[in-house]
């Protein structure tokens, strides 16, 4: 089979590998869709704390496919079932895992991080993943591409649920990548009265606004804080989400918050970067500064429903699709920063 293999900083090659053989308590799935995440790009650039710059790994944690072979001691699953995975597998024993927060487990394993993931034609699903409930059957009628994109939506949903957005709220989304596109759709689905998106490329802003923005701010042309204040009649926003790894976005988001404002620093910064925070504003204005990472099994299940019911159209954020023969080109494309979401279809030789 073909596998796109990360082999250290900046290097991904398309290799022939033997088909994985499941142990008695494992199974093998045929991967039909695997989308490229900013985390994959971070690993390729050599900047992820869980994947060393000299490791060899099949990346990809946003994936869906079909079960093809099931170990003799695996109950409940059978060949032919259409499935997706929740990538972070908790240890099952720590305080976080006991609360159902597999994404917060300090000893997690994850597909595409420290075990081989989705950018290959067949993937082994480990005993721990099956025991942890990390394999999920996808609904009839949901495409593999949609199912692969439930994962990034579930990470957005994890952030979203703690912001308690209501129709009274003004929401600010800083960034114009696929994550921003998903947050704009969430804001629309939850009926936020005003949704402002900030970006630095006019063409991308116009494209992304269609997902649910009521206003756009081009940060190359306008002072972001002044413009957001103007658009909100001087009130500021109730909710803000930073969706790009830029310190200045975090400062702008803080400065745009209204009294009782809630903020999620969704996108991490390069290690070592820090941002000054006006803690008096946090104190006197009763702000809530939040963070989130990954998604729990519960977040994933809820995101799956949002996609199944059509409330969120995840495929809207996909801009480019590649077959397996062009997998390396797909990474180059994603690394170039063009387009929004890139999806690889491992069973397709090359896209028409
Ligand atoms: Zn991801
Ligand atoms: Zn744990």
The CATH H-level homologous superfamily of the largest domain: Medium-chain alcohol dehydrogenases, catalytic domain
The helix content is: 25-40%
What ranges have pLDDT less than 50 throughout 5 or more consecutive residues? none
DSSP helical segment count: 12
Order of helices and strands, N to C?
EEEHEEEHEEHEHHEHEHEHEHEHEHEHE
Structural domains: how many: 2
Say what the CATH topology of the largest domain is: Quinone Oxidoreductase, Chain A, domain 1
Rounded to an integer in angstroms, the radius of gyration calculated over CA atoms is: 20 Å
Give an account of the 3D structure:
The radius of gyration is 20 Å and the shape is globular. Strand 10, helix 6 and strand 11 form a beta-alpha-beta unit. The two termini are 21 Å apart. The protein is built from twelve helices and 17 strands. The strands form four sheets. Strands 3, 4, 5, 8, 9, 16 and 17 form a seven-stranded mixed β-sheet that branches. Bound molecules: zinc ion (ZN) (2 copies). One zinc ion binds next to helix 2.
């Amino acid at each position: 089979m073909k596998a796109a293999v990360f082999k250290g900083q900046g290097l991904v090659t398309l290799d022939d590998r033997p088909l994985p053989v499941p142990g008695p308590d494992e199974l093998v799935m045929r991967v039909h869709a695997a989308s490229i995440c900013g985390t994959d790009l971070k690993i390729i650039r050599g900047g992820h704390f869980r994947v060393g710059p000299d490791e060899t790994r099949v990346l990809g944690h946003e994936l869906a496919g079909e079960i093809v072979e099931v170990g003799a001691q695996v109950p409940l699953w059978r060949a032919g079932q259409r499935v997706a995975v929740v990538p972070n597998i908790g240890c099952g024993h720590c305080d976080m895992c006991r609360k159902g927060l597999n994404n917060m487990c300090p000893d997690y394993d994850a597909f595409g991080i420290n075990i081989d993931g989705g950018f290959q034609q067949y993937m082994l699903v480990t005993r721990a993943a099956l025991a942890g409930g990390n394999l999920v059957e996808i609904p009839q009628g949901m495409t593999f591409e949609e199912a692969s994109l439930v994962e990034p939506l579930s990470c957005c949903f994890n952030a979203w649920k703690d912001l308690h957005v209501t129709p009274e709220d003004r929401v600010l989304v800083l960034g114009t990548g696929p994550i921003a596109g998903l947050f704009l759709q969430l804001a629309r689905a939850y009926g936020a009265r005003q949704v402002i998106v900030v970006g630095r490329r006019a063409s991308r802003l116009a494209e992304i606004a269609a997902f649910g923005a009521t206003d756009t701010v081009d940060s190359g042309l306008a002072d972001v804080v002044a413009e957001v204040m103007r658009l909100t009649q001087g009130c500021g926003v109730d909710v803000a989400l930073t969706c790009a790894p830029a310190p200045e976005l975090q400062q702008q988001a803080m400065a745009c918050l209204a009294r009782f404002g809630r903020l999620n620093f969704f996108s991490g910064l390069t290690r070592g970067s820090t941002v000054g925070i006006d803690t008096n504003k946090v104190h006197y204005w009763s702000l809530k500064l939040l963070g989130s990472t990954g998604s729990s099994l519960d977040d994933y299940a809820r995101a799956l429903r949002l996609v199944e019911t059509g409330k969120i159209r995840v495929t809207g954020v996909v801009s480019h699709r590649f077959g397996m023969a062009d997998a390396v080109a797909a990474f180059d494309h994603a690394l170039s920063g063009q387009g929004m979401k890139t999806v690889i279809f491992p069973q397709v030789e090359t896209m028409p």
